[in-house]
Amino acid sequence: MERTGMASLPLHPGKAPRWLFGRMVKLAEAISEVMIYEYGKKKFLQTISDPFWFQAFSCVLGFDWHSSGTTTVTCGALKEALSGKREVRIAGGKGKSSKKTLEEIDTIGYEMGLREETIDSLKYASRMAAKVDNAALQDGYSLYHHVLIMSEDGDWAVIQQGMNIDYKYARRYHWLSDDLKVFVEEPHNAILGKKEKAMDMTARESREARKVSVDLVRDNPRHLRREWELLKKPSCQATLDGWNMKIPHLHMPQRINWNLIKG
Question: How does DSSP classify residue 139?
Fold first, then answer.
Protein backbone atom coordinates (compact mmCIF):
# COMPACT_ATOMS: atom_id res chain seq x y z
CA MET A 1 0.00 0.00 0.00
CA GLU A 2 1.26 3.47 -0.69
CA ARG A 3 0.08 6.93 0.08
CA THR A 4 0.17 8.47 -3.37
CA GLY A 5 0.05 12.17 -2.61
CA MET A 6 -1.33 15.18 -0.78
CA ALA A 7 -3.04 18.40 -1.76
CA SER A 8 -3.53 21.55 0.32
CA LEU A 9 -6.64 23.64 -0.34
CA PRO A 10 -8.24 26.77 1.15
CA LEU A 11 -10.82 25.83 3.79
CA HIS A 12 -14.23 27.17 2.72
CA PRO A 13 -17.67 26.70 4.33
CA GLY A 14 -20.97 26.17 2.53
CA LYS A 15 -22.43 23.65 0.12
CA ALA A 16 -22.38 23.16 -3.63
CA PRO A 17 -25.58 24.22 -5.43
CA ARG A 18 -27.99 21.29 -5.75
CA TRP A 19 -28.37 21.81 -9.50
CA LEU A 20 -24.58 21.59 -9.91
CA PHE A 21 -24.25 18.49 -7.74
CA GLY A 22 -26.87 16.67 -9.82
CA ARG A 23 -24.94 17.39 -13.01
CA MET A 24 -21.68 16.32 -11.36
CA VAL A 25 -23.21 12.95 -10.48
CA LYS A 26 -24.33 12.32 -14.06
CA LEU A 27 -20.99 13.33 -15.56
CA ALA A 28 -19.01 11.38 -12.94
CA GLU A 29 -21.01 8.26 -13.76
CA ALA A 30 -20.36 8.62 -17.49
CA ILE A 31 -16.63 9.29 -17.09
CA SER A 32 -16.07 6.48 -14.57
CA GLU A 33 -17.97 3.97 -16.71
CA VAL A 34 -15.84 4.78 -19.76
CA MET A 35 -12.59 4.65 -17.75
CA ILE A 36 -13.41 1.31 -16.13
CA TYR A 37 -14.52 -0.17 -19.46
CA GLU A 38 -11.48 1.09 -21.40
CA TYR A 39 -8.71 0.78 -18.80
CA GLY A 40 -10.01 -1.49 -16.05
CA LYS A 41 -10.81 -1.15 -12.37
CA LYS A 42 -7.20 -1.08 -11.16
CA LYS A 43 -6.24 1.73 -13.52
CA PHE A 44 -9.30 3.70 -12.40
CA LEU A 45 -8.16 3.44 -8.77
CA GLN A 46 -4.61 4.40 -9.71
CA THR A 47 -5.82 7.45 -11.59
CA ILE A 48 -8.22 8.64 -8.90
CA SER A 49 -5.30 8.40 -6.43
CA ASP A 50 -3.28 11.03 -8.28
CA PRO A 51 -3.90 14.37 -6.46
CA PHE A 52 -3.35 16.39 -9.65
CA TRP A 53 -5.67 14.22 -11.73
CA PHE A 54 -8.31 14.31 -9.00
CA GLN A 55 -8.16 18.12 -8.94
CA ALA A 56 -8.60 18.25 -12.71
CA PHE A 57 -11.41 15.69 -12.50
CA SER A 58 -13.27 17.93 -10.05
CA CYS A 59 -12.96 20.87 -12.46
CA VAL A 60 -14.21 18.78 -15.38
CA LEU A 61 -17.26 17.80 -13.33
CA GLY A 62 -18.01 21.50 -12.84
CA PHE A 63 -16.64 22.14 -9.36
CA ASP A 64 -13.88 24.53 -10.38
CA TRP A 65 -13.43 26.28 -7.04
CA HIS A 66 -10.00 25.32 -5.70
CA SER A 67 -11.23 24.91 -2.16
CA SER A 68 -11.76 22.19 0.44
CA GLY A 69 -15.06 21.36 -1.27
CA THR A 70 -13.10 19.94 -4.20
CA THR A 71 -12.58 16.80 -2.13
CA THR A 72 -15.87 16.46 -0.28
CA VAL A 73 -18.23 17.39 -3.12
CA THR A 74 -16.39 15.41 -5.81
CA CYS A 75 -16.20 12.30 -3.61
CA GLY A 76 -19.88 12.71 -2.75
CA ALA A 77 -20.84 12.97 -6.41
CA LEU A 78 -18.68 9.99 -7.35
CA LYS A 79 -20.11 7.91 -4.50
CA GLU A 80 -23.65 8.58 -5.70
CA ALA A 81 -22.62 7.93 -9.31
CA LEU A 82 -21.17 4.51 -8.42
CA SER A 83 -23.94 3.46 -6.05
CA GLY A 84 -25.52 0.22 -7.22
CA LYS A 85 -22.55 -0.61 -9.47
CA ARG A 86 -20.70 -3.88 -9.03
CA GLU A 87 -17.21 -3.11 -10.33
CA VAL A 88 -16.31 -0.16 -8.06
CA ARG A 89 -18.09 1.33 -5.04
CA ILE A 90 -17.38 3.95 -2.37
CA ALA A 91 -17.80 3.78 1.41
CA GLY A 92 -17.63 6.71 3.82
CA GLY A 93 -17.90 10.45 3.35
CA LYS A 94 -17.73 13.73 5.24
CA GLY A 95 -18.30 14.19 8.97
CA LYS A 96 -20.79 11.69 10.38
CA SER A 97 -20.75 9.76 7.10
CA SER A 98 -17.05 8.99 7.60
CA LYS A 99 -17.92 7.13 10.82
CA LYS A 100 -20.10 4.75 8.79
CA THR A 101 -17.22 3.67 6.54
CA LEU A 102 -16.64 0.27 8.16
CA GLU A 103 -20.35 -0.53 8.19
CA GLU A 104 -20.66 0.41 4.52
CA ILE A 105 -17.60 -1.68 3.63
CA ASP A 106 -19.38 -4.67 5.15
CA THR A 107 -22.53 -3.97 3.14
CA ILE A 108 -20.74 -3.30 -0.15
CA GLY A 109 -18.42 -6.26 0.29
CA TYR A 110 -21.40 -8.56 0.80
CA GLU A 111 -23.13 -7.16 -2.31
CA MET A 112 -19.93 -7.65 -4.32
CA GLY A 113 -19.58 -11.21 -3.09
CA LEU A 114 -16.19 -10.61 -1.47
CA ARG A 115 -14.75 -13.12 0.96
CA GLU A 116 -14.85 -12.30 4.66
CA GLU A 117 -11.06 -12.03 4.92
CA THR A 118 -11.02 -9.57 1.99
CA ILE A 119 -13.67 -7.43 3.68
CA ASP A 120 -11.67 -7.51 6.92
CA SER A 121 -8.52 -6.38 5.09
CA LEU A 122 -10.46 -3.50 3.51
CA LYS A 123 -11.68 -2.38 6.93
CA TYR A 124 -8.15 -2.66 8.31
CA ALA A 125 -6.82 -0.51 5.45
CA SER A 126 -9.50 2.11 6.16
CA ARG A 127 -8.64 2.26 9.86
CA MET A 128 -4.87 2.35 9.33
CA ALA A 129 -4.93 5.03 6.64
CA ALA A 130 -6.97 7.26 8.95
CA LYS A 131 -4.75 6.48 11.94
CA VAL A 132 -1.52 7.28 10.10
CA ASP A 133 -2.70 10.62 8.71
CA ASN A 134 -4.26 11.61 12.05
CA ALA A 135 -1.56 10.40 14.44
CA ALA A 136 1.71 9.36 12.76
CA LEU A 137 1.75 12.54 10.67
CA GLN A 138 1.59 15.52 13.04
CA ASP A 139 0.99 18.33 10.55
CA GLY A 140 -1.81 20.18 12.35
CA TYR A 141 -4.65 18.83 10.19
CA SER A 142 -7.51 16.87 11.81
CA LEU A 143 -9.42 14.45 9.58
CA TYR A 144 -13.08 15.18 8.91
CA HIS A 145 -13.55 13.39 5.57
CA HIS A 146 -12.70 9.77 4.71
CA VAL A 147 -13.77 7.53 1.84
CA LEU A 148 -12.57 4.12 0.71
CA ILE A 149 -13.02 3.31 -2.98
CA MET A 150 -13.11 -0.47 -3.42
CA SER A 151 -13.27 -2.78 -6.41
CA GLU A 152 -14.78 -6.23 -6.71
CA ASP A 153 -11.20 -7.55 -6.99
CA GLY A 154 -10.39 -6.36 -3.47
CA ASP A 155 -8.21 -3.43 -4.57
CA TRP A 156 -8.83 -0.08 -2.92
CA ALA A 157 -7.97 3.59 -2.71
CA VAL A 158 -8.51 6.01 0.17
CA ILE A 159 -9.18 9.73 -0.18
CA GLN A 160 -9.33 11.63 3.09
CA GLN A 161 -9.04 15.24 4.16
CA GLY A 162 -8.11 17.12 7.32
CA MET A 163 -8.63 20.74 8.31
CA ASN A 164 -6.46 23.31 10.06
CA ILE A 165 -8.73 26.01 11.42
CA ASP A 166 -5.83 28.33 12.35
CA TYR A 167 -4.40 28.34 8.81
CA LYS A 168 -7.88 28.12 7.24
CA TYR A 169 -6.60 25.33 5.00
CA ALA A 170 -7.60 21.76 4.27
CA ARG A 171 -5.21 18.99 3.25
CA ARG A 172 -6.16 16.00 1.13
CA TYR A 173 -4.38 12.64 1.41
CA HIS A 174 -4.42 9.91 -1.25
CA TRP A 175 -3.71 6.22 -0.60
CA LEU A 176 -3.55 3.22 -2.95
CA SER A 177 -3.39 -0.52 -2.29
CA ASP A 178 -0.74 -1.14 -4.98
CA ASP A 179 2.77 -2.17 -3.85
CA LEU A 180 1.59 -3.14 -0.38
CA LYS A 181 4.47 -2.81 2.08
CA VAL A 182 3.86 -1.20 5.47
CA PHE A 183 1.51 1.53 6.63
CA VAL A 184 3.95 3.35 8.87
CA GLU A 185 7.05 3.96 6.72
CA GLU A 186 6.97 6.43 3.84
CA PRO A 187 3.58 5.50 2.40
CA HIS A 188 3.55 8.76 0.40
CA ASN A 189 5.28 9.04 -2.94
CA ALA A 190 4.18 12.64 -3.63
CA ILE A 191 3.28 15.75 -1.65
CA LEU A 192 1.40 18.70 -3.06
CA GLY A 193 0.65 21.74 -0.96
CA LYS A 194 1.81 24.51 1.30
CA LYS A 195 5.26 23.91 2.81
CA GLU A 196 5.03 23.62 6.60
CA LYS A 197 7.01 22.10 9.44
CA ALA A 198 5.58 18.74 10.46
CA MET A 199 6.56 15.76 12.56
CA ASP A 200 6.39 12.87 10.13
CA MET A 201 6.77 9.61 12.06
CA THR A 202 6.29 7.72 8.78
CA ALA A 203 9.60 9.01 7.36
CA ARG A 204 12.45 6.54 6.98
CA GLU A 205 14.54 8.87 9.15
CA SER A 206 11.97 8.40 11.94
CA ARG A 207 12.43 4.63 12.10
CA GLU A 208 14.46 4.78 15.34
CA ALA A 209 12.01 7.30 16.80
CA ARG A 210 9.16 4.87 16.13
CA LYS A 211 11.05 2.08 17.89
CA VAL A 212 11.80 4.29 20.88
CA SER A 213 8.15 5.39 21.04
CA VAL A 214 7.01 1.77 21.20
CA ASP A 215 9.61 0.98 23.87
CA LEU A 216 8.46 3.95 25.97
CA VAL A 217 4.84 2.86 25.79
CA ARG A 218 5.71 -0.75 26.66
CA ASP A 219 7.80 0.35 29.65
CA ASN A 220 6.32 1.20 33.06
CA PRO A 221 4.33 4.45 32.58
CA ARG A 222 5.84 5.80 35.80
CA HIS A 223 9.23 6.10 34.10
CA LEU A 224 7.76 8.07 31.20
CA ARG A 225 5.77 10.27 33.59
CA ARG A 226 8.94 11.09 35.56
CA GLU A 227 10.81 12.09 32.40
CA TRP A 228 7.84 14.16 31.27
CA GLU A 229 7.73 16.08 34.55
CA LEU A 230 11.45 16.82 34.27
CA LEU A 231 10.99 18.19 30.76
CA LYS A 232 8.20 20.49 31.94
CA LYS A 233 10.31 22.08 34.69
CA PRO A 234 12.00 25.36 33.67
CA SER A 235 15.78 25.38 34.00
CA CYS A 236 17.48 27.79 36.42
CA GLN A 237 19.43 29.48 33.66
CA ALA A 238 18.63 30.38 30.09
CA THR A 239 20.67 31.52 27.12
CA LEU A 240 19.97 34.40 24.77
CA ASP A 241 18.86 31.93 22.08
CA GLY A 242 15.27 32.59 23.04
CA TRP A 243 15.59 36.10 21.58
CA ASN A 244 16.55 34.68 18.21
CA MET A 245 13.23 34.06 16.46
CA LYS A 246 14.89 31.95 13.74
CA ILE A 247 15.50 28.93 15.98
CA PRO A 248 13.12 25.96 15.54
CA HIS A 249 10.35 25.87 18.13
CA LEU A 250 8.50 22.67 19.00
CA HIS A 251 5.39 23.32 21.10
CA MET A 252 4.44 20.29 23.17
CA PRO A 253 1.02 19.61 24.73
CA GLN A 254 0.54 20.25 28.45
CA ARG A 255 -1.39 17.07 29.07
CA ILE A 256 -0.93 13.39 28.25
CA ASN A 257 -3.63 10.72 28.36
CA TRP A 258 -1.89 8.47 30.89
CA ASN A 259 -4.79 6.02 30.98
CA LEU A 260 -4.20 5.38 27.28
CA ILE A 261 -0.49 4.83 27.91
CA LYS A 262 -1.26 2.33 30.70
CA GLY A 263 -3.66 0.44 28.42
Answer: S
pTM attached to this predicted model: 0.74
Which residues lie below 8 Å from residue 222, measured CB to CB, with a gap of 6+?
none
90-111: per-residue pLDDT in tens?
999 999 999 999 999 999 999 9
Residue extents of the structural domains in the chain? 2-200, 207-262
Query: Would the pLDDT of 243 be above 60?
Result: no
- Report which of 173, 120, 216 is spatially closest to residue 5, judged by C-alpha positions: 173
CB 148 within 8 A of CB 105: yes
- More confident of the two residues 131 and 223: 131
Strand partners, 158: 148, 175
- Between vectors from CA 77 to CA 93 and to CA 63, what angle results, nearest 5°? 110
Region of 154 (left: φ > 0; alpha: ψ -120 to 50; beta: rest) is: left
Q: Which of 137, 201, 148 is nearest to 6 (CA)?
A: 137
pLDDT of residue 188: 47
CB 81 within 8 A of CB 29: yes
Q: Burial of 255 by CB count in 10 Å (0-12 exposed, 13-18 middle, 19+ buried)? A: exposed
Indicate the pairing of strand 137-138 with strand 156-164: unpaired
Count of residues making up the chain: 263
User: pLDDT, tens digit, for every residue of 55-89?
Assistant: 999 999 999 887 888 999 999 999 999 998 999 99
Burial readout 218-245 (b: 16 or more C-beta within 10 A, e: otherwise): eeebeeeeeeeeeeeeeeeeeeeeeeee
- The helix (run of H) or strand (run of E) holding residue 171 is strand 169-176
